[in-house]
Design goal:
By secondary structure, the chain is of the alpha+beta class. The protein has 8 helices and 11 strands.
C-alpha cells in the first residue's frame, strides 16, 4: 500500500468514528427530547407511590383495596390534627396502624403488604403532590457541576414541587385537595424552621458528643441538656428508634458519670509517665 493510500484509509476511519459519535449524540438528544415531551404531557411515570397502583394501560390510579384507601385518608386526617410528622408517627404506632405497601421487586412484587410506619415513608407521602392529584417531573435531577468522577451516584439534587420542570394539577385521582396539600407543605416548613431555631449550639460542655454508641442497637446516642434546680445536667440517650419508627426510647445514661470516667482515663494516658512509656514503645517499634 502506498503512503497516500494509507493516509486516506486513516482519515476515512477517523471520519467514520467522528460520525458515529455525532450520530450517538443526536440519537441521545432525540431520546431526551422525547422523554421531556412525554413528561410535559404527564405520561412519564415511575413506580406507583404508596396508595396507588399502575393499571394495564400504564396509568396510576388509587389502590383498589378499600382498606388501603381508608388508611391513606386516615394518615392525612391525623396529620391535620397532630400538625407534625413526629405526632403522626407516634399516633400510628400507638394505635397499631400499618401502611399499605406494594413492593416494586421481589417475589411479592405488586402484592399488598402491611408494614410498620417510619418517618422517611411518611415524609415522602406528605411531600408528594400526587396525593392532591398533581403530576410532577424533575423532582430528582442530576447537576453535572456537582458530580464527582468515578462516583455515578453523586450530583443528585432534589427540587420542591413548585420548582419541578413539570407540574400538572388534576392529573390523578386525589386523596386530599390542593389547598390541603399546600397547607401541609407550610406546616412541614414551619416545623423544620422551628427545629433549626431550637437546635442546641454545637459548643456545649459535652466531651463525647457524637462518639457514644448504644450497646443495644448500635446507633449513636444523642446529647441532651436539662436544667434541674438551676444546674445544667447532661444525659446521653438513644432515640433513633423513637425518631424513625415512633418506638420507645432505647436507653439513656448520665453524662456526668460517663464523662468523669473517660476524662480520668484520658488524664492517666497523657500523664508524663504514660507519655514516656508510649514514646519509648514507639522508638522501639
Amino acid at each position: 500500500m502506498c503512503l497516500a493510500c494509507g493516509i486516506d484509509v486513516y482519515y476515512a476511519t477517523l471520519l467514520k468514528g467522528t460520525m458515529s459519535e455525532a450520530e450517538l449524540h443526536i440519537l441521545k438528544s432525540r431520546l431526551q427530547q422525547g422523554m421531556w415531551n412525554k413528561a410535559q404531557r404527564g405520561e412519564l411515570l415511575n413506580h406507583a407511590p404508596t396508595g396507588f397502583v399502575r393499571t394495564s394501560a400504564g396509568d396510576l390510579v388509587m389502590d383498589p383495596d378499600e382498606q388501603a384507601q381508608a388508611v391513606m385518608r386516615l394518615l392525612f386526617a391525623q396529620f391535620r390534627r397532630r400538625g407534625s410528622v413526629s405526632g403522626l408517627l407516634r399516633w400510628l404506632v400507638r394505635n397499631d396502624v400499618k401502611l399499605p405497601i406494594r413492593p416494586h421487586s421481589g417475589s411479592n412484587r405488586g402484592e399488598l403488604e402491611w408494614r410498620r410506619p417510619n418517618r422517611v415513608t411518611l415524609l415522602n407521602i406528605l411531600h408528594h403532590p400526587i396525593y392532591a392529584g398533581a403530576y410532577r417531573w424533575g423532582h430528582r435531577e442530576v447537576d453535572a457541576r456537582k458530580k464527582i468522577p468515578g462516583r455515578p451516584q453523586t450530583g443528585r439534587t432534589f427540587n420542591a414541587y413548585d420548582k419541578c420542570r413539570v407540574l400538572i394539577r388534576d392529573r390523578f385521582p386525589a386523596y386530599i385537595t390542593w389547598e390541603e396539600f399546600e397547607e401541609n407543605q407550610r406546616k412541614l416548613r414551619d416545623n423544620s424552621n422551628l427545629g433549626k431555631a431550637l437546635a442546641a449550639p454545637r459548643h456545649g460542655p459535652s466531651v463525647l458528643a457524637g462518639l457514644v454508641v448504644c450497646g443495644r442497637c448500635g446507633h449513636r446516642m444523642l446529647v441532651a441538656y436539662t436544667n434541674a434546680s438551676g444546674q445544667k445536667t447532661l444525659r446521653y440517650s438513644c432515640q433513633r428508634a423513637a425518631i424513625d419508627y415512633g418506638a420507645d426510647r432505647c436507653q439513656s445514661l448520665s453524662g456526668a458519670v460517663l464523662e468523669s470516667f473517660v476524662v480520668e482515663r484520658l488524664l492517666q494516658a497523657i500523664s508524663p509517665a504514660s507519655l514516656e512509656l508510649s514514646l519509648a514503645a514507639t522508638a522501639d517499634i
